[in-house]
Amino acid sequence: MSGVVIIGAGHGGSQLAISLRDEGYDGAITLIDAEGELPYHKPPLSKTFLKQSDARPMPLRPASAYDDREIERIAGRASHVDIVGRKVALESGQRLSYEHMVLATGSRNRSFAAWPKASNVFSLRSLADAYALRAAMMETRRVVIVGGGFIGLELAASLRSTGRDVVVLEAADRVLKRVAAAEISAAVEAVLEEMNVEILSNTQIINVDCREGRVIGIETNRGRVTSDLVVVGIGADAEVRLAHSPSLATDNGILVDPALRTTSPGVWAIGDVANVMSRENGTRLRIESVQNATDQARHVARCIATSRVEPYQSIPWFWSDIGPAKLQIAGLSSGSTERIVRDEPGRLAVYHLRGADLVAVETINNPAEHVLARRLLAASAKPTAEQIRQGPQVLRMLIDI
Fold it and tell me: What are the residue boundaries of the FAD/NAD(P)-binding domain, all occurrences included (predicted)?
């Protein structure tokens, strides 16, 4: 067999397989799925799936979508990649040859090196993780969440809505510090505090009290925090364990060129695992988001199917539903030199400028302005601070001409 072999069947891998056919590719397509599930939506795992005991995973598309397009799905895990021989070995012993290989292996949850093995400590990445966490919740009253990023805060809101007592431990001086402006953090914290979620910022873990295989307390610089159940959400690392060939360069992910090609011919990388040069600020970065994975998948499918290799140029955007707060981010704010805040009753918008350039917009409960922001960024519009303060009606004039 030759053709395209896709390792990883998450949002990116699944989209790539479908898009290859939609772009007219007529060669063999093989999708390797380590989980063995019909590819599913991951965002609901931290929300609806946990709150409803009978909730089932939401497939990205029905099995017939793959079957009708003659996409072979293999439930199994790739164990080795032979870059020179262009072959992928599976743990089952099966070997697949390829003309193009796409690494869509995603990322894996980061963990504390010194954290004890305990039956009541969980993380959330996969459907199996979500099933385990949901089962453990049934007899749990008090939950400690370690980490105030997107996943930790989504979980905090979801678990609190089911009646659990929830405490969030965050090492930084505010939640979402790595990804959002201070005004966004403050608004999200206010929403969670209104839900009676306790947020402890500037909190460092000193020791974990583990007895009979369970964590019963966590010693911090701010005192002892007791727990029935602990969820650790302190970030993720790129899943690069297959990329150990000397011809595949890695550094915080798999290094790819502007077209998403790796340093080895015929090998591409997309999604969380891909470290790509940002056209916005000229630095390398990995972007962990569903939309980034699916947009990159469509791009690589087009390149392979048409044999026309072009730079990937989509504007990144993100979202997170944290209780009643819908946080949406368009663009990348790193390196910005000025921000303009528009705070209106029930909604918020933060615009980031780098010199005269608009580079990112963060909004809460403001979907129309988020869509407008994406249009402004795609058009490389250069609104002034005064135009931003005047609001969407004025900003639309920059692109509706």
Answer: 4-297
d(CA 181, CA 209): 34
CATH 3.40.50.300 correct for 333-396? no
Please give the Cα distance from 131 to 316 (Å, whole number): 30
* pLDDT value at residue 283: 81
Say whether 339 sits in a helix, a strand or coil.
strand
Could you tell me which of 273, 319, 281 has the C-alpha nearest to residue 297?
273
Split at pLDDT 50, 70, 90, the class of 114 is low
Beta bridge partners of 353: 338, 358
Q: pLDDT tens-digit profile of 259-303? A: 999 999 999 999 999 999 876 667 889 999 999 999 999 999 999
Give me the CATH code for the 111-232 domain, please. Answer: 3.50.50.60
Q: How many residues does the chain have?
A: 401
φ/ψ of 279, rounded to 5, equals -75, -15
Three-state DSSP at 185 gives helix
pTM: 0.94
Class of domain 4-108+237-306: alpha beta
Domain edges within the chain: 4-108+237-306, 111-232, 333-396
Predicted pLDDT at 278: 74
Q: Are strands 71-75 and 78-82 parallel, antiparallel or unpaired?
A: unpaired
Fold: same for 111-232 and 333-396: no
User: Can you tell me the distance from the alpha carbon of 61 to that of 17, in angstroms, rounded to the nearest whole number?
Assistant: 12
**Which of 135, 155, 130, 166 has its CA nearest to residue 45?**
130
